[in-house]
User: Fold this.
Amino acid sequence: MPFRYPVNHSRISRRDFLKLARDAILTVCGLLGLGGVLRFLSAQTEPAPQTDFDLGLATNYAVGSQTVFLQIPAILLNTSDGFLAISLICTHLGCTVESKPEGLVCPCHGSRFDLNGKVTHGPASQPLNRLHVEITSDGKIHVHTA
Amino acid sequence: MRRWLLIVSGLLLVILAVIFWQESHRIKPIALVPTLTGQVEYCLTCHSDLAQISNSHPIQTFGCVICHGGERLALTADLAHSTMRGGANPSDYSVVQVSCGGANCHSGTAASYNDHIQRATTSIQETYAGAIASILYTFGAEPDLTARYATSAVQDPGSTTGITSLAAFAPPPTSNPAILAFATNCLNCHISGQPLPGTRTFHFTGCAACHTPTQIEPGTGENLPPADQIHKLTTAISYTQCDTCHNRGNYDLRSMTFQPRQDQPLDRLHDYYQPIAQFTTCEYELDCIDCHTRVEAMGNGNLYGKETDIQYIQCKTCHGTTTDLPQTKTLTDPNDIAFRQAQLNPVVSLKLGDTILVTSKGEPLWNTLLSSDGTYEMIDKVAGVRYTIPLVKGSGCLQDPSRQDSASCHLCHSVTR
Amino acid sequence: MRPTFFHHLHPPTIPARQARFRYTLAAGGLAVFLMLILLVTGILEMFYYIPTPDQAGNSIQTLVFLVPFGALVRNLHYWAAQFLVIVVLIHLLRVIFTGGYARPRRFNYLLGMLLLVIVVFLDFTGYILRWDEGIRWALVAGTNLVKSIPLIGNGLYTLLVGGSQPGGATLIRFYSWHIFGLMLPAGILVAWHLFRVRRDGGIAVPPAALRKDHARISRYELVRREVLAMLLALAGLLLLSVFVPAPLAAPLTATSPLGETARAPWFFLWVQQMLKLGNPFLWGVLVPVAALVLLGLIPYIFPHPSGAELGSWFPKGNRFAQLIAGLLFLAILILTALALLPAS
Assistant:
């Protein structure tokens, strides 16, 4: 029934024009409905994940120390050039990279990174993200993931 | 048929357009995720113009629902407010334990100084035990003045006063008419009682009775209606708040009615106390809470049968006697409650090593200071005015050292209005 | 034009007189359409609804207040459900009052009765899924009614409630009944019911020799009429859903607030009214089941219209059955009205 009429635009009959109009209106209704359903399904009801992590007093982390925080997940290094926070989210497919004596190793597909985040062994191709470190006026160290 | 299909299709399109328009004009919800609950609430969508209730209860930490209850996700007033505790006042004693209680909040232990709810709900300002006992004894329903009844049943098994429980005061219909009249007319002035009608008497019930300052119309002194009261909790409680119950008038025992005071005071001197009262300068220049201590105002968790058993502050606490200087204490313990009390107050601050006055029971008067040059100072907790405390010792005071009640001091020092 | 799948679902032609709105009231078709709406909106709701006691109420509030078109989807689902109950009752009454249940349509009539029962229980289980203060007493009374059945009552109660009293287990079971346990049989029965309509010879009409009016309409015209009815129903449902929200109260908690009027859902008000008379098993189970059985037996025990009388309203041949059905529905209406009066 829908969308079947001769497409001779110069001499379209009234019946066919009305059919065209009806089908066009119903198509728009259908598209509106579809758009509405897509918007409906796209709502995000969970609160956004935390992006600011308070790790306590900066003095708690000795120079040369490496501390893993699984809740971020990130590793905090107190280097000679200051604090460095490297994300432990593997850049391959997102597993949490583990800190081992031999370096940072991802348990899922074997990617390896050095303590600067650089890839030393694939399959990952991108280095681990550096996270912004902030030391507040009361000496607390904050890591921002966003 | 075909024509109808076209028309109805058009109608459907119009309706869908209306639906989309309505959706785009929907009120945008304002989310708040308080750190104490971690659950999103949308109260601010409608109530974003409401002031934060106090610096000790920041909204980013507490949110609204943890105290008020209510449906945190709803955006219609009826549903959102349907489960609110105590209506607009979650500190009403019927719901205070849920709203303000908890071991980390206001129903902890005496040792951690956060047993406010236990103290306030058993205090004589709430139980009214003394007034009830007096009336029952006067009109022959009880053999003595021992307190046995309160405005609502309350227990205190660990009481040190000998009163371990009080039953709810509900005189049977066969009681003396005076007692029945008392029960009907005279139970307005306790913390959970409905305030007296009239000007200057409006206050909320529960904790808010003292801690939420009643808004009065400037000039006339009339109560503002409940809708114009403010969303605020404070420890800087002005005398006007106390005077929503106190100094309102007198009971007439013969007619068993309350006779409100008839004067129209224009200034603090005439407003503070009712016309028959005697008082000194400090008693009207300071606020009530500058002298009346934490235990006096809110109780100490024990049940008392008489106001005089709990109220003990005397002139000599600050002024000393002809032979003794006022008692003091040097603050060496950083966990001393005096520091916490000073911190909560906007005008007083104390530091470790300060010497302050103490009462005979050891309660710190944290708005006082003994400075290095020997002068004793008091700061008004509400207005922040500093006063130097004149000492009795070394002055021309003619007191009898054994008579330290305030009436004796008033003989010479009372103010003439 | 070549007929599509939808055209083929319909016979090539049907008698024009019986195809009129004033004959069928479009009730059967509307019922199918409403079920389709319920299926679609129900699936959409499933993306947000969480069937646990502490999450159910909050997930519905999230859907209503925070999800774009969420309130619309919920209201559509609610109104389609309530109208479905009314429409299937209208359809049942139409079939009785036109005698369309006579042989060979008796079995299909029974299929329809079964569908009626399933639809009512779908409405009830959906009502319970709200898990707010409004459903509290319906849940308690409804499940306790099951317990009142002798011999099997306690066993049935445990099956239904999943514990000794209504709680989280009950909610997930009602959810399972609602989205699958009742929907699957309903789907199968609807397909079978529609199949039987065609196999039994389509809409009931007098045999050709006895017919006065031989006009017929094509399947294309029939489909056009059905599409029009669906579009109108959709427009009406949408308008209603925009302006009249589905009810929602505060989520169920352990303690009930005092002073609430306890009302059954509207389609059970007649049972609630009867339950005021006494024995719950008698008035809450036996009498409603008896009414159902009586209706179900109509094609089998009461006189039915002759062939010539088919295809019209109020044929003489089954006056008695019409009377019984009419009285039964009148009684239900009166009981419902009485239940709505404020308690004295």
Notes: Chain C has one domain: 5-252. Chain C has a mean pLDDT of 93. The interface with chain B takes residues 58, 61-62, 65-66, 68-69, 72, 221, 224-225, 227-228, 231-232, 234-235, 238-239, 242, 248-251 of chain C (CB under 8 Å).
